[in-house]
From TrEMBL:
SUPFAM superfamilies: PP2C-like (SSF81606). Residues 8-238 form the PPM-type phosphatase domain. It comes from Thermus filiformis. Gene3D superfamilies: PPM-type phosphatase domain. Pfam families: PP2C_2. It comes from the Bacteria. The lineage of its organism: Bacteria, Thermotogati, Deinococcota, Deinococci, Thermales. This is Serine/threonine protein phosphatase.
Amino acid sequence: MGGVEVVLAALTHPGRKRPKNEDWVAVERTETGAFLLVADGMGGHKTGDVAARVASETILAHVRDKAPSPQVLLEAFEKANRRVYELAQRPEYRGMGTTATALWLDLPYALIAHVGDSRAYLLRQGELLQLTEDHSWVAERMRQGLLTAEEARTHRWRNVITNALGSFPEARVDLLGLKAEPNDLFLLATDGLYSVLEDKTLQEVLKDFPPEEAARRLVDLANEWGGPDNISLAIAKLPEALPQQSRPYALALETARGPVRLKLGDTEEMPTQVLEPKRKAHFSWRDLLLIGAWVVLLLYILLNQR
C-alpha cells in the first residue's frame, strides 16, 4: 500500500454481569487495508463462545491470502454458517448460533458482511452513521413503525435475534459496500457496547481520541453504566491519503454517496440499492391511538355542527 497504513484497535471484555465472554473480535492487516470482525455467540454459557469462535476462525481462514471481493466475503460467511449449523445439530451444541459483522478494507473501498445484531458504524467528518441494520425482533418492529428507539432500548424482547449464523441451513447475509474517504473511521461493535452507550457518546469518544484510547474509554464507559453484557469492538482509522485504484466490483460504489447494498448474481454485474442514513422518525402504537382519537373527535365535532 505504499506506506499507507490503517490505524487499528480491538478490545473485548466480559462486562460486569456475565461470568464468561462469549464474544469474539479480530483485526488483521492486509496488503490493501485490513480485515475486522466481531461476533457475539448465543446459546448459553456452554456453547455461545464455541459458535462465535468457530464462525470467526472459519471466516478468517477463508478470506486470508485471497483478493478482496464481495463474492469471497459472502462465501466466507456461508462456509461459517454451514460449520456452525452442523455443530448445532449435536445435542451438546443444540441451539447455538452467533452474530457476525465483518469489515474488509480494500482501499479505497470497504466491504461489509453482516448477520445478527452486532453493528458497523462509519464516522465521517464528525458524523456517526450506522451502516448495518439489526436482525432482531425490536429492530424489525421499529422499521415497521410499531416501536420507537426509546421503547426498543428497554423492551423485554430486545435481545431476541431473528437471524444468526448457524440458525438456518442457508445463510442470510447482508452485504454492503462503499467508497472510503480520507480520515474515515469504522467501528464494529457488539450489542454489549451500543445498547448501553448512546450514539452521541460513541461519536464524541471516537472523534476526541485515537483508536486504541477510544476503545479503552468506550469499554470503561459501558462498564460504568452497568456492563450488563459482553463488550467487544474493533476500530479502523483511515489515513489522510488513500490509494487511487479501482476494482472489478467497484463500479456501483464509485458514484454512490453512501453505503450500497450488494446483491451477487451469476454475472459480474451487481444490482445495487443505495442505503439511506438511519432516521428516527417512527410512530409508536400510542402515537397511532392518539391520532385516531383526534380524528374521531374532529369528525364528531363536524357532524354535530350540521
